[in-house]
Amino acid sequence: MKIKDVIAVLEGFAPLQYQESYDNAGLLFGDASREVTNVLLTLDATEAVMDEAIAKNCNLVIAHHPIVFGGLKKITGRNYVERVAIKAIKHDIAVYAAHTNLDNVRYGVSERMAARIGLQDCRVLDPKHGILRKLYTFVPWKDVEMVRAALFEAGAGHIGNYSECSFTGEGTGTFKGNEQSDPYVGKPGERHFEPETKLEVIFPVYLEQQIVKAMLASHPYEEVAYDVISLENAYQQVGSGLVGVLPEPLPELDFLRMVKTRFNTGCVRYTPLRGKPVHQVAVCGGAGSFLLKKAIAAGADAYISADFKYHEFFDAENQLVIADVGHFESEQFTVELFYHILTEKFRNFAPLKSTIRTNPVNYL
């Protein structure tokens, strides 16, 4: 198995196209064509983690946080980022990061948080816009099922909990081939009228190349007429955070104690209590203050996330309870997520979970 095979599985689950514009997810160091010796899974690719990878003969480290976020102009070992880069290159260790793309997929980081406290009926808190496309093509009626099946096989036609979604309409197409043409129906130099079916399917943007390729390969025409258009619809399966409901409402302090235990955190910072039970809960891994208004608008009674600044706590305005569990604590289950993704695909391969606790924050 090559490093690129592992990457293909990760990006099949969390496509790089879903990362935020400021992010740097993907392969940061290393040659993707090399054979895998072993894989080490971690939240952060620190120096200690790289030493662990060396000791355990792992030539691929998969982390949630990109060790290289901005540009590196010099690599002299003056800080931990440069030292990690030197170790990775010196020992031929590839480092891969799945960051906001893993945050933004439906069953990603926030799903692991939601599962930790038993949230049910979850939905994406802030669905992304502009990442859906629609394909229109025109097919002779007797060939439409062949083309439709190829498009579904390539990944088109998924809407929420439904697959194989398409729309067809009947009409008549016209064309006239020149002397170099070899038409599927009709004759060169003559206008031809053909009963055709207009076939429409929807798909996420990262699949566009393979969707079009599948259509062209299955379509009977020599020259295929088709359109790909961008949609502004919110994609309900991709976006930031989740919101769901607890199996039973809990008093606020009982809820906060449960969160502290389930997230194994030394501290939960929270806003003033409202004297109301907690039933609907929003979650977001990492720094989630940017979603506070979305959580309020969704009707959440509480919002679990991290890295709220002092003045941002005021923004709750007694409309919900913010529960700041800490950045590491909100994302600590990502290693289990990596493990699940890889072992579901590679049944006879067991990646290693780092034993290094990379949280730089300590509690007294």
TrEMBL record:
Stretches assigned to coiled coil: none
Keywords, ordered alphabetically: Metal-binding
Domain of life: Bacteria
One Pfam family, short name: DUF34_NIF3
SUPFAM superfamilies, sorted: NIF3 (NGG1p interacting factor 3)-like
InterPro entries in the record: DUF34/NIF3, DUF34/NIF3_bac, DUF34/NIF3_sf, N-reg_PII/ATP_PRibTrfase_C
Family: Belongs to the GTP cyclohydrolase I type 2/NIF3 family.
PANTHER family named in the record: GTP CYCLOHYDROLASE 1 TYPE 2 HOMOLOG (PTHR13799:SF14), NGG1 INTERACTING FACTOR 3 (PTHR13799)
Protein name as it appears in the record: GTP cyclohydrolase 1 type 2 homolog
Native species: Chitinophaga defluvii
